[in-house]
Queue: 4 jobs
Job 1
Amino acid sequence: MRPDPAPCPGGSPLCSAVSRHADPAAAVAELGEALCHPALGFVLFFCSADYPLEGLSRALTHTFGRVPVVGCTTAGEISPAGYERGCIVAIGLSQESFAVACAPVMDLDRFDLLAAQRLVDGLLEECRDAVPDSAGRFALTLLDGLSSREEQVLATLEAALGSIPGFGGSAGDDNRLARTHVYAEGRFHPRAAVVVMVATRLPFEVFTTHHLQPLDHKLVVTRADSATRRVLELNALPAAEEYARLVGVPVAALDAEAFALHPLAVRIADAHYVRSVQRVNPDGSLSFYCAVETGIVLTAMRPTPMLEQLEAVLDGLAQRLGEPALVIGCDCFLRRLEIEARGELATASRLLSRSRVIGFNTYGEQHHGMHLNQTFTGVAIGSATRP
C-alpha cells in the first residue's frame, strides 16, 4: 500500500501524504517515502487514536530523525482524498520557504502570561534567525481536547502573540471521549499543548467559518459547574430535559448526531459562538466542549447548507491568495457528523480534495485566542512568494 502524496514538483515548499497502513512502522515509512527530501524542515501530522502511540513515536523518530515533528490524535482525518478514518496524514514544510519553531506546554494549569511571553519570545527569536523580518508569521496550537483548559491557555497565549494571527484544534480520540494526545519532542503527551510558530514569505490567510444561524429560542443557564463545563439546569429545569424539549426529541435520543444538528451558541457583541454539547450525564446534566457559566444565555442555532458556505469561503481564499499550495484545516467533528447524517460525505471529500485541504476533525477549534465549536478553522497558504 503506497501513500497518496500531493504532488511536489520542482521542490514545492509543501508536500502532503497519507498512509492507511495499520502498522505504525509501515505507516510512517510510507509517509517518509513521500515527504523526506534534503530541504525538509518540519513535519506536521494528524493520526487516528487507533494507532499504538508508543510504536508510532518510535517510528516517527526513526524515520524523520532530527527534523522537528508535531502532531495530535484526531476524531477523523482529512487527507489529500478528503475525509478518512483510521489513517495518518502528514504535511512536510521546506526549510527553503518556511522557518518553523515549536515548543510544548506540559502544565496547562500553570500556563500564565509570563510563561506564555517567554514561550512566544523564544519561538520568534528562533524564526528570526532563519528568515527576514519581512516574512509573515502565524501560530498553530494543538491542545488536549479533554483538558477543559482551552479557554485559559488560549487567552493567555493570545495576549503574548499580540498581532500574530493564531489558529489550531483540540486533539480527539475517535469520539471515545476518553483520552487525547498531542505529540512533541518525540513523545505523545496527554493534558498538554504544543505551540508552533511559522514564518514564511509565501502569502497566507488565517480564517474561521461556520454555517449556523440564530433562532429565536433562548435557554438561560440557571445552574452550572464551570470548572467541569457541566450545565445542571436550563431555564431552572433539568438541563437534559429542557434541551430535549427544545429540539423535540426524547432525552434517550440525545446523542452526538442530535447535538450536531441542534447546536447552541452564546452571543458576544454581534457574533454568535457555538457552545456544543458533549454528552448527557447520568444525573441529567449536560457536559459541553466549551466554557459555560451560570447566567449566560444560550441561543438555539439552525444549520444552513454547510458545503455551499464552505465552498464560497475556500473560493474566496483562492481569489485573494491565488491557487493555494495547501490549506491546513481544523474541522469540528460535529460538522462531520452532520455531513454524514445528511449523506454528503463523498461530496464534501471532493470539495476538500479539490481545495487542497489537509487536516483533522477536532474536539474544538481555536482562532485568535477564542475556543470555538462547530467551525472550520485553518490557514490557507498560497503558492507565490510575496514581493
Note: The first strand starts at residue 14 and ends at 19.
Job 2
Amino acid sequence: MALSSQQLTKIQTQGLRWVDEGSLGLTRTGGAGPTDHKAFNFVSQTSMIPVFNEQIQHSPFSAKADANHEQVLIFENEKLIAKAAMPGRPKFYDLTTEDGIPYWKIATLHSKDVLATTVLQECVRYRNRDTSCQFCAIEESLKNGKTIAHKTPQQLAEVARAAVELDGVTQMIMTTGTPRTLDRGAAVLVDSARAVRSLVDIPIQAQCEPPDDDVWFQRLKDAGVDALGMHLEAVSDRVRKNIMPGKASVPLSRYMSAFKAAVAVFGRGNVSTYILAGLGDTEDEIVAMSKQLIELGVYPFVVPFVPVAGTPLEHHPMPGADMLDRIFKQLGPALVRAGIQSDSLKAGCAKCGACSSLKSYEQEVAHGPAAVCI
C-alpha cells in the first residue's frame, strides 16, 4: 500500500481530519511555525501534516489511531490508503532548568529527531502590521505562555544535551525573531551555537535575515554552525511588498549577494531558503527563482503555505496540490543534478524535509519510486 509523492503532496496541501481528537497525541498548535501540524512517521521520511487548520474540514483525507493506538490509519474518501507511526512525547520535555523553566519552553521536538528553537521570540517587525509578515505568529507563542522571550546560550546548551542523550535528537535548528541590530540576529545565534557545541556535538542550522556584513557568515561557522537558512518566503517584489512589507525592505539583491557569500563559507547545499508556495507568487516565478538558487548552490525549500490562526492570513487558502506537484517535478531532478539533495546536507529544514514533500521527489529521481507508508 504505497503512498506516492503526489498523494503526500495532496495530504500536505489539504490536511488530515482527525477522527478522534482525544487520541491525537503530540502536536503543535498556535504561535510560531511550523504549527497546527502533527508529525507522521512514514517508511522513507517523517512528514508534518496540517491537522488543526479550519480548511482541512473539507479535506478528503482523514486519519485515526488503530485499535491498539500503535499506528495511524490514513483514509482518502473513507478508503484506507496508508498507515503511519506517530512520534511520542520526548523525555526531555519532563525536565526543567534550575530556575524552574520547562525544557519544552526553550526548545521543541520537530519531526521525529530535530530540536528546534526560536532564540529571540520577539521581532522588530511584528507589532506593527504595516511592517509585519502577515503569515507570522512568532509572538503568539509568547503571549500564550508556551515559551520565553530570550533563550540564553546556557539554557539552549542544557536542553540540547538532554535531547541528544535522552531522545536521540540528531540535529538542531536555531531561528530568531529579527532584532533592531544590523546583524539581524546573527550575533545572538553565534553566542547560542558556541554554547551548544561546547556541551554537545550536534549539527546546527542557524536561521536569520541576511546580516548587514558578510563577515557574520564566517563568525557563525566558527561558532559551530554547520548550515545557514535565510528565508525569502516570497520570491517576487510584488508579493514581498504586499505580504511582508517590513522584510521586503531588505531587497532581493541583498539576499542573492548574501546567498553567494554564505555558500562560499558553508558549502553548496548547506545554505537554504524557505519559499512558501501559495502566497501569490506564480508557479513560473517560484520555479525560476528556485533554479537560480540551485545554480548558486542554495537549496530552495519550497513548502505549501498553511495559514495560522491569529494572523492576517488565517483565512487565506492553502495552495493547490497540482501546482506543488508540477513545481516539485521540476525541482527534484534539478537538485539531484546539482548534487545538493536533502540527505547530503549537514543540518536544517531541507535536511529534515518534514514540512514539504519535495524530498520524496528527489528520492524518486535518485532511487526510483519508493513507498512512504508502513
Note: The chain has a mean pLDDT of 91.
Job 3
Amino acid sequence: MFRLLSKESNIFSIPVYIGFLLLSVTAFNVFSLNSLSLIPTLITVAGIALGYFGFNTIGLTYQTHLPLFLYTFFVFAFFPGSIDIGIATALFTNSFLILIMTSTNDDFRRKSYLIVGAILAVNFIFLPATWPMAIFALLHILGTSNRIGLHIFRLFYGVFLIAMSYFSVMYFLGNHSWNEAYFPFTAFKFHNDYGQLLYLLPVILMMAYAIFDHFIHYNKKSPISKFKYSFMLLFFTAQLITVVLYMGDHYEYLLLLALPASIILSRFLRFTKRGWQKELGLWVIIGCVIAFKIAGYQ
C-alpha cells in the first residue's frame, strides 16, 4: 500500500480525497446530521479543502498521495459530530495563512502581511486560544524578511484594522463590557483523561522520532528543505501549544495538528530505509487513528 501511495498525485486527486472524506464523515454521523451546525461545518470543510492545496505550496511531500491520505484519515478521526465555530474558523484561517506565507511569489508574500495580520485578528476573535499563531507570524517575519520593521508594522496594522472594526460594531450593538475570554492566559483547560488519547500514543512516538531523526540528519538536508521544515515545525509548535493548553476534553482541537502531522509523518516514512518498516509504519498510523475514532463512540 505504501508503494501505491508513493505515486505522484495531481490536481484531480484532491476532489477525490475531499469526496471520500465527506462520505466517511457522513457515514459515521448519519444519526446526528440534524445536530450539525451548517455554518461551522461549511467553514470547516472549506478549511480542510484549502489544507489539501497547502501540501503543494509547502513543497515538502514530493506531491505524492501519502500526505493527502494521512491528512484525510486524521481529519476523519478528529472530526466530531458537530464542531465549534472557533475551531472551524481556525482551520480555515490557518490553511489560508499557509497558502499566503508559502507562496512562491516573493513580492506577493511580502506585501501580504497586512492580510496576515487581519487574518490573525479574525482568528483570535473567534478563538482566543490561537494566540500562538501571532508568535509564529512574528518569528516567520524575523527569519525571512529583509525589511523586518516594515513588515511587522504591516502585520500589526492589519490587526489594528480588524480590532477597531470589531470593537466599533460591538459597541454600537450594545456590548460595552470586556469579555474575559479574550484573556487566554486565564482560561487554561488541561486534559485530565488520557484513556482515548492512548490509542494515538504510537503515532505520537513516531512523530517525536521523526522530528528527532530530522535533526540527526540535518546537515544532509538542502537549504530549502531546512527552511521549509523549520517553517512547518514552527507552525506545528504553535498549534501544539493551543492544543495542550486549551483542548481539555474537546478532541476537535486535534484537527489543528492534522496538516503538519501529515507532512512530518509522510516525510519520515518516505525516508525510512526498509520497505517493511514503511509499510508497517503506515498501517500502525491507520490502525491507531481508526481505534481512536471508534473509542470516541464507546
Note: The chain has a mean pLDDT of 85.
Job 4
Amino acid sequence: MGEGTRAVRAGLPEARKYEPTLPGPVFAAHYHLPGEPTGPYTYGRDDNPTWTLLERAISELEAPGAKGTETVTFASGMAAVSAVLLSQVASGDVVVLPDDGYQALPLVQKQLEAYGVEVRTAPTGGDAQLEVLDGAKLLWIETPSNPGLDVCDVRRLVDAAHAGGVLVAVDNTLATPLGQRPLDLGADFAVASGTKGLTGHGDLLLGYVVCRDAALAARVRHWRKVVGAIPGPMEAWLAHRSLATLQLRSDRQCANALALARALAGRADVSGLRYPGLPEDPSHKIAAGQMRRFGSVVSFTLPDRAYAERFLAELRLVDDATSFGSVRSSAERRGRWGGDAVAEGFIRFSAGAEDTQDLVADVLRALGAVAAA
C-alpha cells in the first residue's frame, strides 16, 4: 500500500451501512457500565473510541504492517515526552538528552534531576551522545534537532544503547512518520508532537508515543491515566481527519523547503544555512540513509537581530509565529525566546503548502528590501 493510500485509510473502522466513514468525536465522561467493568470503555480518563481510531491510524503510519504496535495519545507533545521519561526511569537512573534539542527539554531535565535522576547531555551532531551513554537507563534522541537541524545516526546509537541495556526514544516531530520511522531503525519509542506536521493546520495540540513492546506501552498508558494528560475527543478527531492529507502536505512542504534552501544558498546576507535535504548540508549523507523526506524546516542566520526583525516584517506570505509544520508558512527569530544556543539573527523557517514560486519570491523580495534599506 502506498503512503498516500495509507494516510487516507489509516485507522478507519470497518465500513457499515449508513454510518460515516470516520465517525464523529465521542464526547463522554462515562459510559453505560452494568455489572463488572469488562469492556474497553469505562471512564473518560481511561479510554475513548475517538482516541482508539486515531491511535490505530498513527500506529499504521509509524510502523506499517507491524503487528503489536501500540500508540498512546496525549494532550500535547510535551505530555508525551514527559510520559516516556517519567514512566521509564526512577531515582538513581541515568538519562541522556541532546543539549541542542527542543527548548522545553531543559525544563524536563530540571524535573528529572529533582526526582534524583542523573541527566547527561551531548550534541546531536557527530553522534556525540555515544560518549556519555555508559550506564544510562534511557537515551533520548532528537533528529533532526530543533532548531539547528543536526542529524545523528539512529541505527548506530540504537545498537550501542541496546548493547548496554539502554532504552532509546526518538523524537520524530520534525520528520513525521512519512519522513522517518524510528521503530524501523530499532528505537524502543517513537515520540512526537502531533501539533506540528502530523496534523498540519496549526489548530490543535496533540502528542503521541508509539512502541512495539506491550510492557513499555502499558507503563506509558498508566502514566497518562495517573496524570490525566489525555487528548480531548475533538482534538483527536481533528487530528485523524487531518491525516488524510499528510502525504499531500508533506510532499509540497518538503519541496518548498528544499527550493527555499537552494534559493538562500550563496546569499551574502545568509550564513549557517541548514536543511538536511541539501546535498551540501553536513547532515545530508546520514539523513539520506534513514529519512525518506527531509522535513519542512529550514534554518539560517541573518547578520543581526535588527536585520532579522526587518526581514520578518517584510514577509507577506509568511506568518511571524512559533511552531512549525503548518500548511501556512511561518518563520521566527528563534532567539527571542531564550534557551536556544543560537545567534540573535537566527531564523527558523517552516515551509508551508503555498505555491513554491510564490513562497520563494516572497522570501527573496523581503531579503532584498532589507538589504536595500
Note: The longest strand covers residues 70-74.
